[in-house]
Amino acid sequence: MISCPAPLVSCQWLAAQLGAPGLAVLDASYHLPAAARDARAEFAAAHIPGARFLDLASLYDAASPVPYAFPTPDQLAERLASLGVGPDDAIVVYDDSAIRTAARAWFVLTASGRGNVALLDGGLAKWRSEDLALEDGTPALAQAAPASFSAPTRVRSKAEMLANLDAPAFQVLDARGADRVYGSGVDPVHGGPNGRIPGALNLPFNALFNPDGTYKSPSELRALFEGAGVDLSQPLTATCGSGVTASVLLFALHLIGVDSAGLYDGSWSEWSADPDTPKQQGPAA
Q1: Where are the beta strands (DSSP E) in 127-170?
Q2: CATH of the domain at 39
Q3: Do 23 and 122 sit in the same domain of this protein?
Q4: Residue 11 falls in the annotated catalytic set
Q5: CA distance 65 to 186
């Protein structure tokens, strides 16, 4: 059985492993509506050979009142089985998205108990820049036996976030751009007001990457978190607009050995829509 050598793998490593038994490569691309991009159509036009389209945009619990809620264990098991991903397969996720959605796929899988999951450093853009092979079409897939997933323990609810305001138990770190976190007016991505959960720190997710789209070194990542005011020895919950780019922070934390941080699943989409939640705007105090 193949094993991912690290949580972050290079394009050259993956290219050498393509076609190996027990390896599943998943395209986790997902785009915000304003991008006017069709992830499924783009996958059909060009993807890493042998990859399967995860359809991350539809992988959420529609029965939950939380916007873009974490999928249930059964939903996750059904989706992977339908893609022919076996219970013991190694998984490499990648994306071609401005919001780095492979990190969301990684967090959904690992927080639900799946091991042997890695993220492709630099995604499809880096793969293209290295002139590696692509294929088109939609692969025919055989149903696999479903894997067993657990309910995630690192997902925070709005009630937990509210309780944290009264009796702080963890730091809150927002992955959105500073203009949205500290600004006024209307949020250009999700609508509603700009602003933040009171007391939230800010580290924009796109600060974690090198110019070629690969993740910065562990020492650089650690310095970025500390520079944002985060005490890495203390509990932390990441938030963003809808739980996607916060996962980038969580993956980066994993790279520097911090695996206890949680995700506020509803994030600003849920928080800002509730007239009773306290909101903070303007410059940090």
Answers
A1: 155-156
A2: 3.40.250.10
A3: yes
A4: no
A5: 23
Beta-carbon contacts of residue 202 (< 8 Å; ≥ 6 apart): 173, 174, 176, 178, 181, 182, 196, 228, 284
Q: How many domains does the chain have?
A: 2
On the question of pLDDT at 104 being above 60, the answer is: yes
Does a structural domain hold residue 150?
A: no
Instruction: Quickly list DSSP for 211-229.
Output: TTSPBPPHHHHHHHHHHTT
Adjacent-strand bridge partners of 90: 23
Which entry of 108, 240, 244, 261 is annotated as an active-site residue?
240
pTM, to two decimals? 0.96
Task: For residue 80, give the H/E element and its range.
Answer: helix 73-82
| 3-state SS, residue 126 | helix
What is the C-alpha separation between 211 and 208, in angstroms, rounded? Answer: 10
Find the domain containing 215 and state its range.
Answer: 155-273
Centre a 10 Å sphere on the Cβ of residue 224 and count the other Cβ atoms it contains. Answer: 18
Phi, psi of 270 (to 5 degrees): -80, -45
At residue 173, the 3 state secondary structure works out as: strand
Amino acid at 265: D
- Total number of residues shown for the chain: 285
Residue 281 within any structural domain of the chain:
no
pLDDT of the residue at 122: 98
pLDDT at 190: 74
CB 245 within 8 A of CB 181: no
Which position has the token pair 């993220």?
119
Helix H or strand E encompassing 254: helix 246-255
Between helices 218-227 and 246-255, what is the axis angle to 10°?
A: 130
Q: Could you tell me if 161 and 267 are in contact, meaning their C-beta atoms sit under 8 angstroms apart? A: no
Mean pLDDT computed over 107-126: 97
* Angle (CA) 7 9 15, round 5°: 145
Residue 46 lies in a domain: yes
Residue tagged 């976190």 (tokens):
181
